[in-house]
Write a structure and sequence with these properties.
Number of domains: 2
CATH architecture of the largest domain: 2-Layer Sandwich
CATH superfamily of the largest domain: Dihydrodipicolinate Reductase, domain 2
Shape: globular
Bound molecules: nicotinamide-adenine-dinucleotide
Radius of gyration: 20 Å
Protein name: Gfo/Idh/MocA family oxidoreductase
GO molecular function: nucleotide binding
Structural class: alpha/beta
InterPro entries: Gfo/Idh/MocA-like_OxRdtase_N, Gfo/Idh/MocA_Oxidoreductase, GFO_IDH_MocA-like_dom, NAD(P)-bd_dom_sf
Number of helices: 12
CATH topology of the largest domain: Dihydrodipicolinate Reductase, domain 2
Strand order of the largest sheet: 14-13-12-11-7-10-9-8-15
Helix content: 25-40%
Length: 324
């Protein structure tokens, strides 16, 4: 059976997902939806047989879709998931789930009443190296973890506005929070310090913090620190998450996993494309009803969102915040 898929959002990441879907067996991109017909038609023209729409309800009324990809900015989720849940349509939604926790919690309630298959774009979970890290950590006692997301400010306008993206920790560093939860368990408490140092002097209308550091206490008793910045020039940066255990250091980054113990260092490079694996797991679930291959569903992603939103609250109040 050929699955008919719709894509909402017409930006960079819609194309990334769309191109993977266009290559997948037994899938047709039937519709695209954007903020204007021009943008929607432009994306639709990339995929044979796709039609453009400028309203989600028009798209869903016109096409019998088997699944929808939501690739929209964090502030633009209003009503989208609700509409899909009401119609019983499975969806893959890009992270983060929103700019706060209230909206995602309401959607989670709707999903509990009317379940549909969901997947959330925490793609690091689909890297072979992340699975390897998770397996290795099962046999070790984690003392602490340190993670960094150090880069430049993305060019899109919504990212630099607090009400548009939620800020770097909610929008970007959420990937590390999610990976930390995936391989090391739940987070119970956070304490955060954020500051605006540089980018608001370089660009108009920047309201997000450009440096931040968050201390996290895990249910296991381990502690972690995740720090981020977007002050760096383009093409300079580092992203990674390292674990310190009684057996040594496990240093993960998107390209490799390095294990250092007993004076020996072993590196495993990881070149697999996690977005392809993420889409394969989602499509399999839509086809068969077997969602066991989906590594981040909506309910799980809400827990990651709870941590990143607690960090924002802590950065404002100056107090440690309990997550659950
Ligand atoms: N998992 C990953 O690795 C990864 C990478 C990049 C982006 N993302 C996520 O994907 C999402 C989109 O990012 P992007 O880089 O494509 O952004 P973008 O700015 O390039 O594109 C966003 C698109 O959404 C459209 N849009 C805005 N409001 C809309 C609405 N109400 N209805 C329909 N379309 C609307 C905009 O017109 C634009 O075309 C973000 O949440 C981002 O965090 C995830």
């Amino acid at each position: 059976m050929t699955l008919k898929v719709g894509i909402v959002g017409t930006g960079w990441f819609s194309k990334v997902h769309g191109d993977i879907l266009a290559e997948a067996e037994g899938v047709r991109i039937a519709a695209t939806c954007g903020t204007s017909m021009e943008k929607a038609n432009s994306l639709a023209s990339r995929y044979s047989g796709a039609r453009g729409f400028d309203r989600l309800t028009d798209m869903l009324d016109s096409e019998q879709l088997d699944a929808v990809y939501l690739c929209i900015p964090p502030m633009a989720h209003e009503g989208m998931e609700t509409e899909l849940i009401a119609r019983g349509i499975p969806f893959l939604v890009e992270k983060p789930l929103g700019v706060d926790l209230d909206g995602p919690n309401k959607i989670l309630e709707q999903l509990r009443r009317n379940p549909v298959i969901t997947s959330v774009g925490y793609h690091f979970r689909y890297k072979q190296s992340a699975l390897q890290l998770k397996e290795l950590l099962k046999g070790q006692k984690i003392g602490m973890a340190l993670g960094t997301w150090m880069g430049s400010m993305p060019g899109v306008g919504w990212w630099r506005k607090q009400e548009g993206s939620g800020g770097q920790f909610i929008e970007q560093t959420t990937h590390l929070v999610d990976l930390l939860r995936y391989v090391a368990g739940e987070v119970e408490e956070v304490y955060a310090a954020y500051a605006n140092r540089i980018v608001h002097e370089q660009h108009e209308g920047v309201t997000v913090s450009d440096v931040g550091t968050v201390t996290l206490k895990l249910s296991s008793g381990a502690i972690a620190n995740l720090s981020n910045t977007c002050v760096l020039p383009d093409a300079v940066g580092e992203v990674g998450l390292s674990f310190y255990t009684e057996q040594g250091i496990l240093a993960w980054d998107p390209d490799q996993l390095e294990i250092k113990n007993n004076g020996v260092s072993t590196s495993y490079s990881s070149t697999d494309n996690p977005y392809v694996a993420e889409t394969a797991a989602f499509l399999h679930a839509v086809r068969t009803g077997d969602a066991s291959g989906i590594r981040s569903d909506y309910a799980d992603a809400v827990r990651t969102q709870a941590v990143t939103c607690a960090a924002l609250e802590s950065s404002i109040t100056g107090q440690a915040v309990r997550v659950f």
